[in-house]
Amino acid sequence: MSITVPEEGLLARAARFSPPRRYLPVLGTFALFIGMFGVGGIRYEGFADPQVFLTLLLDNAFLIVLAVGMTFVILTGGIDLSVGSNVALSTLIAARTLELGWPVVAVIGVVLLAGTLLGTAMGLLIHYFDIQPFIATLAGMFLARGLCYLISVDSIPIKDETFSAIAFGSITLPGGYYLGWTAVFALVIVAVAAYVLSSTRFGRTVYALGGSEPSALLMGLPVAATKVGVYAISGLCAALGGLLFALYTLSGYSLHAVGMELDAIAAVVIGGTLLTGGRGFVIGSLLGVLVLGTIQTFISFDGTLSSWWTRITIGVLVLVFVVAQRVLTRR
Amino acid sequence: MSQAEVKPPGPVVEMLDVSITFGAVRALDEVSLRLLPGEVHALMGENGAGKSTLIKALTGVYTIDSGRVVIDGVETQFATPAAAQHAGISTVYQEVNLVPNLTVAENMLLGREPRRLGRIDRREMNRRAAASLQALGIDVDPASELGSHPIAVQQLVAIARAVDTDARVLILDEPTSSLDADEVARLFEVMRRLRDHGTAIVFVSHFLDQVFEISDRMTILRNGRVVGERLVEETTQLELVQLMIGRDLQVLERLDHAAHEATEETSAEQRLPVLSAVGLGRKGSLEATDLNLYAGEVVGIAGLLGSGRTELARLLFGADAPDTGDLTVKGSSRRRLRSPRHAIDRKLAFCSEDRKAEGVFGELSVADNMLLGLQASRGWLRPIPAITRSTLVSEFMTALDIRPADPSLPMRSLSGGNQQKVLLARWLITEPDVLLLDEPTRGIDIGAKTQIQQLVADLAEKGMSVVFISAELEEVLRLSHRLVVLKDRRKIAERPNRGIDVNDVLEIITGEPGGLVEKEWADA
C-alpha cells in the first residue's frame, strides 16, 4: 500500500506544524535551555561564546552519562538511588587498581564489571523478590558507599599518564574551539541510548513496561530480562560516569558524588520524562543536565550570586516541570 | 494454518481434569475442555464460575495443580503467556491489555516488530499494522498513540493484535462488552473468517444472543465445575441459563409484579421529597435539571451512552460541583454538596459505574471493604467495635449471598458480581436514605444480576429512595416506579412507570416509532 502525499509548499506545512503531545516536554526543556543561554548572552559578556557551551558539556559529562542510565530506569517506572555511590565506588576502584599498577584496560574492565554487577543485583531483587525499586536501590546506595571506605578512607590521586592524557585531551573544532574527549564520549552514549530506546525491541519493551507492566506480561514480552536489564544499564552508566568523574577530578574518593543520584533524577525530570514511566526521551535528559549546568554557569559568570541559588533554582524547576507534566497529561 | 478441506481429526487443545486451588478456594475442580479446529467454542458461566481461571490455566498465567493440558496430542504446560503465544494460542483479555503510551502499530506488533539489521523498521511496522487493521475493517491511524482512542477502538486493536499472530487458538474473553452493534458485526465477520480457516476460537460473553449467533459448541461452567458441553443448535437459551445458574428464572417474574404493585401505592401518596434538585446543572456535563426523589421509590434513569446518566448521579452526590441550581436534602437547602463526604453525612450513597477505579480496594479484605463506608461516616477516631464489625459483615454476607463466604479474603480474589455486592453492602451498612446506583449490574452474570435487582426492590419497599441507572432498558423498566429519560445531557421526559415498554422509551428518545431503533438501543 503506498500513500501519495500531495505536493505542498514547505512554508504552508511549517505553518500547520504542531508537534505531537509527547514531544512537548522535551521541546519545553529545549526552549528553556535556549532562553537561559539567550538571557546569559545578553547579561554577561562572553556568555554567548560557543566555548562556554562546549565547556558545559565537558564539566557535566559524567552527569550526562548518569542521567542516561537513570532515564532507562525511570521509563520503566522505577528509580535508582544507588548511582551516586556507584560513581564514588568506581572512582575508588579505578584509583586503587591504578595505584597497584594494573593496566588501564583491566582497570576500566573491572570498574565497568563492578558497576554493572551492582545494578544487575538490584534489578534481580526488584524483579524476583518484588522489592520496591526505591528500597532495593537505597540498600545498594548504602552498600556501595560502605564498600568505598573498605577500599580507602582517604582520597587516592590518579597519576596514570594514559588517564591524564584522556582527561586533558580534546578535539579541536573549526574556529579554534575545542571539545574534551570525555564530553565526546558522553554524547556518543546519549546517541547509543537514544537509538536503543527508539529502534530496538528492548527499547520498546522498556516503554511498554512503563505503560503497563501487567499488560506487557500478558503480551508475552520479556518483562524479567528487561526490568533487570534497565538496572544493569543504570549500573553500567554509573560505572562509566564514575570513570569520567575520576578523569575529571583525577582522584578516587569515598566522598565523591554524594547526592549525585538526585541531580541525575532532577535532570531526567526536567528533561520531561514522566516519573511514573512510559514517557520521555534520552535527549530530554541531556537537555536537563545542560539546564542544570547552565544555572551553575550563570552563577559563576555573575559573581555576586551565592552558590545555593543553584539548588534553589533546581528545586523550582523540578517543581514546575512536574506540575506542567500533570497539566499536560491530565486528559 | 491448516487447509480447510483436510481438517486434522483430533482436538487442537484438550484440557483434562484440570484443578486449581487459590488458598482455600477451589477455583477449578477437574474441569475438562476440548477445542476443535475450525469451531467457535463458547465458554459459559456466571461470574466466579471459573471461566477466566480456566483461560489463564491454559495460557500459562496460572500453574495448574493437577490434570493435563494436551496441545496437538502433546502434553504441555506453558510456563508463561509468551510460551502459549509462541505455540499459537493468543488471548484477548476482558480488560484491554495493551500499553496506552505506545502507538497502535507498536501495540499490535510489540515483541514481533519487523526488523532490518536489528533495527525496528518503523515504516514496515506501520504498513503491516495498517494492512491487518484494514482487513478487520478498523479505521485507525497505526501511527497514533493508543491511549488517545476510546476503549472500544483499543479493544479492536487488541483483537487485531491477537489475530495478527496467526493464532491456531484465539481466546476472546468478553470481547464485545465495549463494542457497539456495528463493531460486533465486524468482529463476528472476522471470527467466522478465522474459523473457516481452521482456527479454534474460544468466545466468552455475557450476551446470550451473541453467543447463540456465533458459537458452534459450548462448555458450561458452574462453581469451578463443568456442568455441560453442548452443541449450540441443540440447546435453547433457557436450558443454558438454567445450567449456568442452577435455578430457574421465576424470581425475575416475581420482581415484575412487585414493582408494578408498588407503583400504584406510591403515586397515591403525596410526600416530601428526600432529595430535591432544582435547576441542577454543570457546564459540559448536564443542562439544568429538576428532580425529586421520594422515600420508598425507585427512579430509573434511562438514556443512551453519553446522555448524561452518570453525570446526573455525580451531581446529585456532590462528586462533581454543579455550576447552577439548588440541591435540598430533606428540606435543608444548600446550593451544593461540597464533597462526597458531605453527601455521606446527609445519608446519600453512590455506587459508581467504574467499580474497579472508584470502589474496590483490591488488597483489603472483603470485610474491610464493606466497613469502609461506615468507618468513614463515623470518623477515623471512633473505631467500630469488633463485635459490631463481625455481626454486620456476616449479616450482609448472608443477605447478599456473597461468595466465597469468607470475609477475610482479599477483595481482588472475588468475581465481578460478588465485588459489586460487597460495594452495595458497603453503602447499605451506612443505612442511607438515598441510594444512587450507576450501572450496578454491568458486566456481572445473570444470577448476581437477579439478586441485585431483587435487593433494590426490597430496599425501596423498606423506604429507601433509589436512583437506578442502567444501559439495559428492560432492567430499568422492571425496577423503576418512575422513569426519567435523558438525551444529549438534558432531561427530556419524566413519567410514572405504568404501561411503558421498551418501544415507548425508544420513541421518547428518538422521536420515532420504537421498533425500528431497538437494535441501536442494544448498543448503549
Short description:
Chain A is mostly helical. Helices cover 72% and strands 3% of the residues of chain A.
Features:
heterodimer, A: 331 residues, mainly alpha, ABC transporter involved in vitamin B12 uptake, BtuC, two-stranded antiparallel ribbon, 15 helices, B: 524 residues, alpha/beta, Rossmann fold, 3 domains, 6-stranded mixed β-sheet, 19 helices, 38% helix, 23% strand, globular, disordered N terminus, disordered C terminus
Question: How would you describe what is shown here?
Answer:
The complex is a heterodimer of chains A (331) and B (524). Chain A is mainly alpha-helical and 331 residues long. Helices cover 72% and strands 3% of the residues of chain A. Chain A has one domain: ABC transporter involved in vitamin B12 uptake, BtuC (Orthogonal Bundle), CATH 1.10.3470. Chain A has helices spanning 10-16, 24-43, 50-59, 61-75, 83-99, 104-128, 133-151, 161-168, 181-199, 201-211, 213-218, 223-249, 260-270, 282-302, 308-328, and strands spanning 156-157, 170-172, 178-180, 251-252. A two-stranded antiparallel ribbon of chain A has the order 1-4. A two-stranded antiparallel sheet of chain A has the order 2-3. In chain A, a hairpin with a 5-residue loop joins strand 2 and strand 3 (178-180). In chain A, helix 5 packs across helix 12, helix 9 packs across helix 10 and helix 13 crosses helix 15 (308-328). The model of chain A is unreliable at 1-6 (pLDDT under 50). Chain B has 3 domains: 13-245, 3-Layer(aba) Sandwich (Rossmann fold); 249-347 and 433-447 and 462-524, P-loop containing nucleotide triphosphate hydrolases (Rossmann fold, 3-Layer(aba) Sandwich), CATH 3.40.50; 357-431, no CATH class. Helix content of chain B is 38%, strand content 23%. In chain B, helix 13 (366-378) runs parallel beside helix 15 and helix 18 (502-510) crosses helix 19. Chain B is globular and about 70 Å long. Chain A binds chain B through residues 1, 20-22, 195, 199-201, 204-205, 207-208, 210-212, 214-222, 278-279, and chain B through 61, 80-86, 91, 93, 97-102, 106, 110-111, 113, 115, 118-120, 122, 127, 130-131, 145, 161.
